[in-house]
Amino acid sequence: MRERPVMHRVPYGHEEMEFLASPWFEVDTVTSGTLEPVADVAGAARDALRAPHGSPPLSELARDAVARNSGATAVIAVTDLTRASPDAALVPPMLDELSRGGIPDARITVIVAVGLHRPTTEAEKREKLGDAVVARVRVVDSDGRDPQKWADLGPIPPYGVPGYTQKLVKEADLVAATGIVEPHQYAGWSGGRKTVAIGCCGEPVITATHGMRFLEDPGVRLAKIDGNPFHDTVTEIARRAGLRFCLNVVTDDRERVVALAAGSPDAVLRELVRVGSALYTKPIAKQYDVVVAGVGAPKDVNLYQASRAATYLRFAPTPVVREGGVIVIPAQLPEGAGEGAGEQRFFEALERALSPAAVVEDARRHFEGGQQRAVMVALTLQHCLIVVAASEAASIVQRAKLRVAVDVEEALEIAYEHIGRPKSASLLVVPRALHTLPIVQAEVGA
């Protein structure tokens, strides 16, 4: 009796996409670990704020600020829409804590840390924060393009990066931040200190920290913070910018909150990295010929963000896909390459270059923030083929030098042809490639 074919599923926008793999593929699937989702995120946030790590409570920090300045102001930096931080649940209890400490809503600003991404609309601010927060306090976007809005923090070690943050942030008496602690290509792990240091910075910071000096530093690696100069740099920028307190979360591969921590930026990061490492890191036995790397919303909104799925798998401690293999990314891409300045530079760098090697060489001669994603994609293309499946922006994908497929099945046919049509081929399905860090256990070539 013939076995029924197995239907595989990966996220696609806010839905799922199903596909079948041809019989010559030997298929494995790897997912991140599981933890019980937090049932009441707002309630858990209030609990975390009452028991902070390595810091007095936020209300006490507010009282200290008011004692120094009776008209003390506060800023809460939050992530933009490309991060699934549940800020509508996190920010209200933070506002309550600040109010309890003597800083009223009228002297609190929530700043959406957009970096070089596009500004957020009024509707998006309400979607991100909730109507009640937008009605309660001032909500603005950071501006990485206007030097008139920046404060100079001086050169930042270890590489002397120019330090610029928003004046609004630097001039506040108390700065707090939200964020998600998850693997990050450069910072090792993301989180609240990056929300402030990169999301609220001036453009020269992004240009310097994302340039070739950092990209080629062996300490700048996914899921690594110790000995990582990018981590050290953003930590120092956030400190000089005045960041005192974070309320951060860890989410599972369905974007559900599974852990929260509040307190000092360093203590919160270390605590949630401990949780995230156990959740995201998964052993695999070998490299694979082909990998299907799922993304889903909000990261598959544009090619800039969705391309992380390929580069995370390429720059895992050992590349998950073998040299000459294929990574397939099912991604919706309703915003094409992306609409911000950084996204457009990413796309233009890929489009204008004659080859992946030329992308890297161009970045060595002249670099602007946003090009780093093009460099990482180019380095990945030097290792393997990337096929983007089922996107709404096929022409953008083609102009960025990536292959296009109408669906995952066609992408797998392209992949099978690319690897030489062997009698059998290994295929790994990673449904949530940005929430799963596969670690190859066997020595490559053994």
Write structural notes for this entry.
With 446 residues, this protein is of the alpha/beta class. It folds into two domains: 7-30 and 285-440, LarA, C-terminal domain (2-enoyl-CoA Hydratase, Chain A, domain 1); 41-278, Rossmann fold, CATH 3.40.50.11440. Helix content is 36%, strand content 25%. The protein contains 18 helices and 20 strands. It has helices at residues 41-50, 58-68, 87-100, 122-129, 131-136, 167-170, 192-197, 203-209, 212-215, 229-241, 265-280, 303-306, 308-314, 341-352, 356-365, 371-381, 394-399, 408-418; strands spanning 7-12, 15-20, 25-29, 74-79, 108-113, 138-141, 150-156, 161-166, 174-180, 183-184, 188-189, 243-251, 257-263, 281-284, 288-293, 321-330, 385-389, 403-405, 425-430, 437-440. The strands form six sheets. A six-stranded parallel beta sheet has the order 3-19-15-16-17-18, with helices on both faces. Strands 6-5-4-9-12-13 form a six-stranded mixed beta sheet, sandwiched between helices. Strand 17, helix 17 and strand 18 form a beta-alpha-beta unit. Helix 1 (41-50) runs parallel beside helix 3 (87-100) and helix 15 (356-365) packs antiparallel against helix 16. The longest helix has 16 residues, at 265-280.
Outline of the structure:
The chain is an alpha/beta fold and 446 residues long. The chain contains 18 helices and 20 strands.
